[in-house]
């Protein structure tokens, strides 16, 4: 891994902040159950290291989702330590769908906004 | 994938435990997360220690604690509110107390209000909310008892300090209850819960030494405040125990494992310096020798006053009973001068008796004995009761007896001056002896000291008594000067009459 290269291309935390919840929910909806470290690894793997979830950002969100009833946890003993798995609840699955949809719509809007010369089009119509 | 040994996991568990993570299953998760990270790094060929150091760098200083805080902030609305309240009110009350203390030192108006509200916010809002947040973050091992005692004892203690600073009555009782609840209930309770948690036997001893010295120290401070005997040995044992035994042992135990100097260590060092300074100032006991010096000084002033009184009496007696003096106006003037002078003298004497009976908690009869022999006064170095009696509760010091004394001195000065109108010399001496202006240097320093504060603020009992003796002596000086002036003007008149004849 070339750390210096990755750092330059990493997506900024500011941009990531608002969509973190949706990303976590998306991952959980595609996997039966996941634990914290696994989520960070998965995100890194899929994005080729360009998005890195720090555990400082991840765990508060996981706990928030748990108190909201979107996910449930189960614990397993693994290699001499306890591992906490997160799993979407029934309502959680709907929430995940909504959140992902919301994020997609947001991205589309951003795309339109970033299209060169869009302001001219609006003026004409 | 290299697997961690149990010993490795133990190291990581200790790291997380040090951060005191208590919220839900966050602790287990963080342990697991760090283990995974370490395993991941070890896979690239690093040793456990290197991998662990690397992972610690990723966490950063206080990183674990921060996660718990962020989690609580995100989940718990009440926590968010409390934390905000704590920070804002804490800042406001601390700055109010600091500014109030500055005002108090400079005797600017408004010091009292600032201090009262500062302490009120501190005791009634900041302190409970801070404890609530602490409880939420560390759960205090579910020990409701410690929590309750620290809230009640702490609030009582904070208000005790406020009452002491403002010289309100009842500060002694509040401070005693506050000290006792902190020293004899809270500290042992914390000690017990610490002992339960401590990992090694060595640490037990350190905690016990710390707790015992702290209790000694608190008792010393309490005794000092209350002027009970035995404060000094307690303070010495307490501070020696804390600074030379407990703190070095504790810092060695806690900080020896960390390579870099932590901010906490620096704070601790500064804290020790301040603690010792406070301690030394408090332990700086006013020795018995100094007290007996004040007693002797007071006696000398009283002796002078008595000699002057004898002279006055002899002189007025002579004028009144002299059969050659036929001027009745002159005789009645002499009697008046004596009467008004005696009136002020006696008023000051009453203030002295009142003060001593309040300070030592005795009746007037016993107090009169102690006025005669000031060596008998017990609370010679108390300055709360004298200040409240003489200066009152207001910032300008004009709501106590000192104001009455000042008015009476001014009245006497005017009356006596009237009796020796033509005699500038005598008038000068009377004005000087019965001066009621604050000294010039205070105005030059730009401070607004009233006469009352200048003379009586924060004076110990024995100094206050001496000050009052000093004013009594000055009354006699003025009286004698007036009588002499009356006599010499009468003689001059007679001389003129004989010259004419």
The gist of it:
Chain A is α+β, with helices and mostly antiparallel strands and 125 residues long. Chain A has helices at residues 3-9, 13-17, 20-30, 36-46, 55-68, 90-114, 118-124; strands at residues 34-35, 71-78, 81-88.
Characterize the structure shown.
The complex is a heterodimer of chains A (125) and B (501). Chain A is α+β, with helices and mostly antiparallel strands. Chain A has helices at residues 3-9, 13-17, 20-30, 36-46, 55-68, 90-114, 118-124, and strands at residues 34-35, 71-78, 81-88. In chain A, strand 2 (71-78) and strand 3 form a beta hairpin. In chain A, helix 3 (20-30) packs across helix 6. Chain A is globular, with a radius of gyration of 18 Å. The termini of chain A are far apart. Mean pLDDT of chain A is 82; it is low at 1-8. Chain B has 501 residues and is mainly α. Chain B is 80% helix and 0% strand. In chain B, helix 12 (288-321) runs antiparallel to helix 13 and helix 16 runs parallel beside helix 20. Chain B is elongated. Classes of the chains: A alpha+beta (125), B mainly alpha (501). Chain A binds chain B through residues 35-37, 55-56, 59-61, 63-64, 66-67, 73, 75, 78-84, and chain B through 3-4, 6, 9, 23-26, 28-33, 35-37, 63, 66-67, 70-71, 73-75.
């Amino acid at each position: 891994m070339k750390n210096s290269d990755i750092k330059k291309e990493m997506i900024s935390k500011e941009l990531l902040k608002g969509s973190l919840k949706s990303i976590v929910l998306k991952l959980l909806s595609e996997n039966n159950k996941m634990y914290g470290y696994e989520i960070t690894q998965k995100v890194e793997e899929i994005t080729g290291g360009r998005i890195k979830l720090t555990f400082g950002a991840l765990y508060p969100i996981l706990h928030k989702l748990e108190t909201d009833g979107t996910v449930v946890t189960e614990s397993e003993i693994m290699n001499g330590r306890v591992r906490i798995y997160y799993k979407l609840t029934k309502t959680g699955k709907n929430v995940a769908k909504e959140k992902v949809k919301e994020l997609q719509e947001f991205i589309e809007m951003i795309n339109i906004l970033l299209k060169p010369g869009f302001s001219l089009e609006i003026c004409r119509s | 994938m290299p697997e961690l040994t149990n010993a490795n996991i133990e190291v990581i568990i200790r790291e997380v435990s040090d951060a005191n993570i208590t919220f839900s299953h966050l602790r287990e998760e963080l342990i697991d997360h760090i283990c995974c990270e370490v395993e991941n790094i070890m896979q690239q060929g690093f040793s456990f220690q290197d991998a662990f150091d690397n992972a610690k760098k990723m966490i950063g200083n206080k990183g674990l604690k921060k996660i718990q805080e962020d989690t609580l902030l995100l989940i718990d609305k009440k926590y968010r509110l409390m934390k905000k309240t704590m920070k804002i009110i804490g800042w406001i009350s601390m700055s109010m107390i600091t500014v109030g203390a500055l005002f108090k030192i400079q005797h600017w108006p408004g010091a009292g209000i600032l201090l009262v509200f500062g302490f009120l916010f501190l005791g009634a809002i900041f302190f409970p909310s801070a404890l609530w947040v602490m409880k939420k973050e560390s759960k205090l091992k579910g020990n409701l008892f410690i929590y309750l005692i620290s809230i009640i004892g702490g609030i009582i203690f904070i208000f005790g300090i406020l009452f002491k600073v403002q010289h309100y009555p009842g500060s002694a009782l509040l401070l005693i209850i506050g000290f006792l609840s902190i020293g004899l209930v809270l500290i042992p309770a914390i000690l017990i819960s610490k002992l339960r948690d401590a990992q090694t036997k060595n640490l037990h001893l350190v905690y016990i030494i710390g707790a015992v010295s702290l209790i000694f120290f608190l008792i010393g401070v309490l005794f000092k405040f209350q002027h009970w005997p035995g404060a000094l040995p307690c303070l010495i044992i307490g501070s020696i125990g804390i600074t030379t035994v407990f703190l070095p042992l504790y810092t060695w135990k806690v900080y020896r494992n960390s390579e870099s100097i932590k901010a906490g260590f620096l704070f601790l060092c500064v804290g020790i310096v301040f603690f010792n300074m406070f301690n030394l100032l408090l332990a700086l006991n006013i020795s018995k020798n100094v007290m007996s010096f004040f007693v002797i000084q007071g006696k000398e002033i009283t002796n002078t006053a008595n000699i002057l009184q004898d002279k006055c009496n002899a002189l007025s007696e002579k004028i009144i009973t002299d059969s050659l003096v036929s001027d009745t106006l002159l005789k009645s003037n002499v009697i008046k001068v004596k009467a008004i002078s005696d009136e002020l003298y006696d008023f000051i004497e009453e203030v002295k008796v009142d003060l001593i009976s309040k300070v030592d908690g005795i009746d007037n009869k016993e107090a009169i004995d102690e006025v005669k022999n000031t060596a008998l006064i017990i609370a010679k170095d108390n300055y709360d009761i004298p200040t409240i009696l003489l200066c009152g509760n207001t910032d300008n010091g004009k709501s106590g007896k000192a104001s009455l004394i000042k008015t009476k001195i001014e009245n006497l000065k005017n009356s006596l001056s009237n009796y020796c109108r033509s005699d500038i010399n005598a008038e000068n001496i009377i004005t000087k002896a019965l001066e009621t202006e604050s000294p010039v240097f205070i105005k030059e320093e730009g401070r607004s000291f009233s006469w009352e504060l200048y003379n009586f603020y924060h004076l110990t009992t024995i100094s206050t008594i001496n000050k009052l003796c000093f004013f009594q002596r000055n009354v006699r000086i003025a009286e004698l000067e007036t009588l002499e002036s009356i006599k010499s003007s009468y003689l001059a008149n007679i001389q003129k009459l004989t010259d004419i004849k």
